Amino acid sequence: MKPDIPRIPQATTKRLPLYYRFLQSFDNAGHKRVSSQELSEAMKIDSATIRRDFSHFGALGKKGYGYEVPTLLEFFRKTLDQDEAANVALIGVGSLGTAFLKYNFQKNHNTKIVVAFDTKAPVEGTTISDIPVYHSSVMLEKLEEYGIELVIFTLPSRSAQQVADQLGTSSIKGILNFTPIRIQTTDAIRVHTIDLSVELQTLIYLIRNEHTE
C-alpha cells in the first residue's frame, strides 16, 4: 500500500528519485544503516537539506542513529510507485528521440517506452530498438490501445503546441517536454519542461561564478 504523502515542496519532490537511487547503492553495498551526512557526501547535497526533505514524511530515522537503509528504501519504493509500471510513449523520433529509444530506461526504473510516433514513420508502423513507431496520424488511437498516460516530447518546437492540443482529448496525464517552448494544456495534463539550452546556460553561469561573492 502506498504511504499517505503530504503536500511537499517541488524541489523536494524532484530529489526523491535521487534518494531512492543512492539508497539502492548503499543497499547493494551491504549497508544496513546510513546517516544524513553519509548521504550528503555521496549525493553532494547538504545534510540539512536531506533532513528537511525527510522530515516531510515523518520520523524516518532517529537522531544520533541515522536511517535504516532497507526501511528507507522500502518507503521510497512505495512512495515512488516502483511496483507499478508506467508505459510511456515518445513523440518525435529525431536524434534525441532515437537516443531515448535506444536507452529506454534501464532496470530499477518503473517506466518504459513502449510506443513512439513520428510524422515520417509509416502508418502501419516500423520498429526502432524493438519499439513500434507509428505515423502521428494514428497517435490518439494507439495511445488508447497501449494504455498510455505519460508521453515524452522530443518533436520539433513548431509542432509541440499542436500535438499538446490533440492530447487534450486523450487520457494522457503527463507530458515530459524537451522542447524549449512553454506548452499550454488542459488542467488534466501536467507538463514538466526540460529545456536543455537553459540547463546548459545555468551550468555555465554556475561554473564561471562559483568562486565569486
Order the strands across the largest sheet as they lie in space: 5-6-4-3-7-8-9
Largest sheet, described in full? 7 strands, mixed
Per DSSP E runs of 2 or more residues, the count of β-strands stands at 9
Total domain count: 2
Average pLDDT works out at 87
Strand content: 15-25%
Under CATH, the homologous superfamily of the largest domain reads: NAD(P)-binding Rossmann-like Domain
At CATH's second level, what is the architecture of the largest domain?
A: 3-Layer(aba) Sandwich
Order of helices and strands: HEHHEHEHEEEHEHEEH
Short description:
With 213 residues, the chain is of the alpha/beta class. It is built from eight helices and nine strands.
